[in-house]
Amino acid sequence: MRHAMATKIEAAESVREYLAGQEQKSLLRFLTCGSVDDGKSTLIGRLLSDTKQIFEDQLAALERDSRKHGTTGEDVDFALLVDGLEAEREQGITIDVAYRFFATPKRKFIVADTPGHEQYTRNMATGASTADLAIVLVDARQGVLRQTRRHSIIASLLGIRNIVVAINKIDLVGFDQGVFERITAEYATFAESLGFKSIVPIPMSARFGDNVTRRSDKMGWYSGPTLIEHLETVVVEEEAVAQPFRFPVQYVNRPNLDFRGFAGTVASGSISQGDEVIVAKSGKPSTVKRIVAHGGDLRSAVAGQAVTLVLDDEVEISRGNVLVTPDARPHVADQFAANVVWFDEAALLPGRSYILRTETDQASATVTDLQYRVNVNDFAHEAARALEMNEVGVCNISTQSPVAFDNFADNRTTGAFILIDRITNATVGAGMILNPLRRAGNIHWQSLDVTRKARAELKNQRPSVLWFTGLSGSGKSTVANMLEKKLHAAGRHTYILDGDNVRHGLNRDLGFTDEDRVENIRRVAEVAKLMADAGLIVIVSFISPFRAERRMARELMGQGEFVEVFVDTPFEECAKRDPKGLYARALAGAIKNFTGVDSPYETPENPEIHLQTLGKTPEEMVETVETWLNGRDIAEHQYDDGGGI
Amino acid sequence: MLARLTHLDRLEAEAIHIFREVAATFTKPVMLYSVGKDSSVLLHLAMKAFYPAKPPFPFLHVDTTWKFREMIEFRDTMARELGFDLLVHVNPDGVRDNINPFDHGSNTHTHVMKTVGLRQALDKYGFDAAFGGARRDEEKSRAKERIFSFRNAQHAWDPKNQRPEMWKIFNTRVAQGESIRVFPLSNWTELDIWQYILQENIPIVPLYFAKHRPVVERDGMLILRDDDRMKLKPGEVVENKLVRFRTLGCYPLTGAIESDADSLEGIVSEMLTARTSERQGRLIDRDEAGSMEKKKREGYF
């Protein structure tokens, strides 16, 4: 009994020792990428199997599955270990990134197995965004393909500096050194401009395990490392700690009046108690009083740590601001240039408003200029008016409020952002900031003494933008015109912005493509905003087919100032009325991009006023609008806090 | 010189970051507390993330009425000691119909009491974000899931159309009725969990430690007869064996393993030489191929 006890204690000690050893190991995050069928999933299955990460029950399941879905004949199909979704197993392809974990005596690894199909590029980018190294697989029989290039470019843009070119299926070309050397040279030439720090080519057979964890006896001509030897020893420098201090404020922790802490993760650099910091957006200085952590205050914290900072004085800071070192401040700007990778089926359109998110900040943003698109085959810069799904380009971006950031090349955390669609909330793009644009810094708001409130009071009215949207021929202009006449007669100061009229002047350079429609609405919305500022009741009569632009217009205006009026006439009725003869021509194919025919109209979901026109006279509809406006003004009068008009 | 962060330091920081992100961006988050070791780690991290404040969200346990008694005791003790806001939900329809693992099988029981029960609770309180303790190393469909995993208004997961998840920039936007499941332990392995429990001295349900317990061998698994709702079949005998559990769920569906590991070190040492994965002890994952993915698409965690 005593003997058993002693063994147990010894065992406990050796476990603690073992765990201490585990803690000393560094972690390498990498991804496998490349074209379809180059053997990415098979390679990971091989790595997991050879490093003994597969349990008996998993192996039994794998053997069962291999018989059912496998593509390797009698052998176990390792790809089925990582292709975890039913659809993937049925189709024998990888759709989404899978994360797998393994360790060797020297290092721990998190590997992202990413899909090769072009349509799933966004999932490849997801895997690459958190990786330090990329294994680019190349089928020895195929050489460098379009997807090999696309993935290499994306890896490079996302800041990956170490590449392994896994020249796979070398068994199928007779372990031929010539093939290996040709592909190595081809890749090196193509990747020259991508700024990789290391490119290590390794000939291998993932299926049979040659040069994965076991040195192949069939390639005496190859003297380089096996894949696992390279992964265990490659140096991935920890840059973040050496960079200037950045602390994006994530959450303000305020449990009671005596405590106000700024919670976040140190993005780069380090911070100690007593250090001076600057609030990036306001430029205000303060000093770190405490670094609070559960279990006792810390004296200092470094990049990667999630802490709570308490400052010496009550400076104004909210989520999205950044605490930084006084010695090296980030950019604070509302315009910058960035590399953008586009993920969504609906193309990126210059002028359209998106939501931009950095790690903790959020702002409305538009692409003001698409400088060029990158051709993934030859890196040529091509002129483009939109960025389609899976394309990469350089854009100028303008945000509604200033953002604090670094260039992505200097800081992978504070130089990155994503773009979100306003309607679907989908993540539609990822951006890496190149540099701020100076324009923003040099053009300041001129402050004016006569305020919008004063202008409106003089006119004794509530400035509004009545935004009429609907198909061509739905009756927008008729109702708008009659409404203006009545308002005018009642002593209101009004103006109509009519789609056709504006296209004769301000917007005469614009056509009817999606990109031009977006720009058309953006300009009109800005003009309407100026007019509302001047105190007018602005009636906008535009087809304005896209929800995103109508929402952008709404957000430009003050609270409650934007009134969406949906002139709802069925397509058939508009085509029948056809006051300008346009439907006949569009249906005959003589006019392209005609709303309702070959260009979509996105119906308003919650318009303030919904005019169903069938069976109603224009007079009745004008009355509906007037009644609504009077109702609003009365309601506001009742609940007036004295600040409004 | 500043110390380098260890592997566990990084995992901890990542999880804390995720907790705070949810608290900062969602209106009504909740943490799913299932009382197991992963939930214990999650709870510990939540306490750390908001210190000195308490976590600004409640903890929800979806009880199937078939959990081990020791789990329920442990749950109530933790809630009392740490002072967190505990919500317990049991599917009333399942109780009315007396849904149980013996008569209805693990599939129906799990679907009604866990999946539907969870959906009911989420709808009842209108939560827009729910933390769970799932890890990517547990199962192959979980290996595919995002940290912030979108659910439509029917609580369904669409594995073929997940939002891209770049860097640590999380898209936390949802429309009315939609929600996000959030997995702060995504990048932890089973070993990391045990190592962290050891390092931080985190309390766990005693069922994880070996002890003599009354078990019945059924369908090749050792089932702890936790109460007399479990009727013995002909030829079955209750034996007192030295056993422990690698995972905890409903007692009739959770197999014990014979083991003498009565300390955390013993558990880790046993785990390092284990030749089967932890979910092997769970009946629900074996019912059919791809069964976890199917459950998740229906709204299971």
TrEMBL record, chain A:
ATP binds at residues 470-477. The keyword NADP does not apply. Pathway: Sulfur metabolism; hydrogen sulfide biosynthesis; sulfite from sulfate: step 1/3; Sulfur metabolism; hydrogen sulfide biosynthesis; sulfite from sulfate: step 2/3. GTP binds at residues 34-41, 113-117, 168-171. The active site is at residue 544. Coiled coil: none annotated. One of its GO terms (molecular function) is sulfate adenylyltransferase (ATP) activity. It is an enzyme of class 2 (transferase). Keywords: ATP-binding, GTP-binding, Kinase, Multifunctional enzyme, Nucleotide-binding, Nucleotidyltransferase, Phosphoprotein, Transferase. The keyword Membrane does not apply. Signal peptide: none annotated. Residues 25-241 form the Tr-type G domain. InterPro entries: APS, APS_kinase_dom, CysN_GTP-bd, CysN_II, CysN_NoDQ_III, G_TR_CS, GTP-eEF1A_C, P-loop_NTPase. Its EC number is 2.7.7.4, 2.7.1.25. It catalyses: adenosine 5'-phosphosulfate + ATP = 3'-phosphoadenylyl sulfate + ADP + H(+); sulfate + ATP + H(+) = adenosine 5'-phosphosulfate + diphosphate. HAMAP family: Adenylyl_sulf_kinase, Sulf_adenylyltr_sub1. PANTHER family: TRANSLATION FACTOR (PTHR23115). Proposed to provide activated sulfate for transfer to Nod factor. ATP sulfurylase may be the GTPase, regulating ATP sulfurylase activity. Catalyzes the synthesis of activated sulfate. In the C-terminal section; belongs to the APS kinase family. Heterodimer composed of CysD, the smaller subunit, and CysN. This is Multifunctional fusion protein. It comes from Aminobacter carboxidus.
Automatic annotation (TrEMBL), chain B:
Keywords: ATP-binding, Nucleotide-binding, Nucleotidyltransferase, Transferase. GO terms for molecular function: sulfate adenylyltransferase (ATP) activity. Residues 29-255 form the Phosphoadenosine phosphosulphate reductase domain. It is an enzyme of class 2 (transferase). Pathway: Sulfur metabolism; hydrogen sulfide biosynthesis; sulfite from sulfate: step 1/3. It catalyses: sulfate + ATP + H(+) = adenosine 5'-phosphosulfate + diphosphate. Belongs to the PAPS reductase family. CysD subfamily. Heterodimer composed of CysD, the smaller subunit, and CysN. With CysN forms the ATP sulfurylase (ATPS) that catalyzes the adenylation of sulfate producing adenosine 5'-phosphosulfate (APS) and diphosphate, the first enzymatic step in sulfur assimilation pathway. APS synthesis involves the formation of a high-energy phosphoric-sulfuric acid anhydride bond driven by GTP hydrolysis by CysN coupled to ATP hydrolysis by CysD. This is Sulfate adenylyltransferase subunit 2. It comes from Aminobacter carboxidus. The lineage of its organism: Bacteria, Pseudomonadati, Pseudomonadota, Alphaproteobacteria, Hyphomicrobiales.
